[in-house]
Amino acid sequence: MEEINRTLFLWINATPQSPAWLLSLATFIARDLIMIVPLLIVGMWLWAPSHRVMPQRELVLKTGIALLYALTISWCVGQLLPHPRPFAIGFGHQFLAHRPDDSYPSDHGTTIFTFALAFVFWHRLWSGVLLLAIGTAIAWSRVYLGVHWPMDMVGGLLVGLLGCLTSHLAWQVYGTRLLSALHQAYRLVFALPIRKGWVQQ
Questions:
Q1: pLDDT for 35-67, tens place per residue?
Q2: Whole-angstrom Cα distance, residue 66 to residue 64?
């Protein structure tokens, strides 16, 4: 498996001869595209058609729970199965600054794939597929720039799947009560913006 991981890495990883425009594009994707996650979460909670408010907020909360579980699982796996990043062992070429901490599974991969899978399962297939495509681009970019192994991204996908499953099971136990409590707290804290019509109540 390690040999496959290294072979795939060398196939994807950029070299000093790689085009500057592609390195710049990969850097943008690797560093900035992940911001779609918090932006969509906040946007979907604050703004929605009146008949979609609660279903949309349920999706936001279930996705948030899935992310918390997935990142916790990711941290535990990283502690149990530490694996150095490619540049930490002098393998391949690095084009993105990063601390030489453990790489498996990828936090970026875990976050975007959890988010994408949540939309596949609980929103609409087209939105989930679009986010999976974005996740694949992020996974490619971080391997291309030399800060992750391909298997780090596969690990992130699997942990994201586990996070969604755990969230779905947890929702049956406390999801509705938590949504109600958060909704009440939101209406209290955002009373003025709601009254002004800036955000949905």
A1: 999 999 999 999 988 888 899 999 999 999 999
A2: 5
State the residue range of the domain holding 25.
2-196
Whether 49 is covered by a domain: the verdict is yes
Note if the pTM is more than 0.85.
yes
Tally of domains in the chain: 1
In a domain, residue 201? The reply is no
By the 8 A CB rule, do 181 and 76 touch? no
Write the pLDDT tens digit of every residue in 53-111: 899 999 999 999 999 999 999 999 999 988 999 999 999 999 998 888 888 999 999 99
Helix axes 53-80, 36-46, angle to 10 degrees: 150
- In a domain, residue 86? The reply is yes
Q: How far, in Å, CA of 167 to CA of 190, rounded? A: 27
Helix (H, G, I), strand (E, B) or coil at 198: coil
The CATH number of whichever domain residue 59 belongs to comes to 1.20.144
Q: Is residue 18 part of a domain?
A: yes
Rounded CA-CA distance 125/140 in Å is 22
The amino acid occupying position 78 is G
pLDDT per residue as tens digits for the range 120-159: 999 989 999 999 999 999 999 999 999 999 999 999 999 9
